[in-house]
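Exercise: predict the fold of this chain.
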Amino acid sequence: MKRIFVTIILSTLLYFPEVKAQEFVDDIDDAIRDELIDEQDYETDSIDGNYKFVMTQTLSKAKPLKRPCIYDMPYSISANYPNYRRLAANTGVLIAGGLTTLVILDLLPENATNWNKKEETEVPMAERYYNNVMNGPHWDHDNPIFNYVLHPYAGAAYYMSARSQGFNMWYSALYSFAVSTIFWEYGIEAFMEIPSIQDLFVTPLGGWLIGEFFYKAKRYIVEHDYRLWGSKACGYIAAFLLDPVNECLGYFRGNEAHGWSKRHNVEINSQFSLAPDVFGGQAPTLSVSLTF
């Protein structure tokens, strides 16, 4: 019975490619596991000289576990499924976008940004950066649209860049803080003005609160196949506004949030097979897979 039980477990490996083969291997006796791993074909392998497996895939060839998409997982503020490679690409886009934004803001009139145009031309960049950092932070008098609308939205975009790539709420908030404070406020913007007290708090904190709301809203859109009010156009537009970085890059690298309903339809497959038993006859085996 023990051999039949092991056979059933191993049979399911062919129908669950998303489960790590190593998890099955660890549950098998050491002597049996070592013998199986050394073989290339279970049809010619015998265990203890009295049992054969009707399988043609070795454990060493089993597919690795695919990184889960956070939109396939239940909602949680603490569960973490980080995709560092994609987050690195997101960070590159944010850096490029930040530099582009800096150029655009520099082209605006001085009364729009309160950046000292005369100082820009007369004071070297390194000296200007040092003076601004050492004299800050201070309470700025920027346009309220910048301080209390665009900055929180930018913080939410930073937050979603990490949240949609599997990071939990805490790591996503930390990422938003790092981008808004280190890269922007005490980074490239410090070349133009003294760091702002409001921006140091409003951008990451507002981004955290708004970003988690954005994440829940995007989960709703994803679970409805990118439809909002029955329209895919509205769904795609809303998803872009909620998560601009991931949605833009998704057109080039693939968007894991697409096809949610196809991955969650329940499908049950079963298959019977026969294998030689210790008495020279044949023992039935059953393989069952459940996809949802």
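Check your answer against the key: The radius of gyration is 28 Å.
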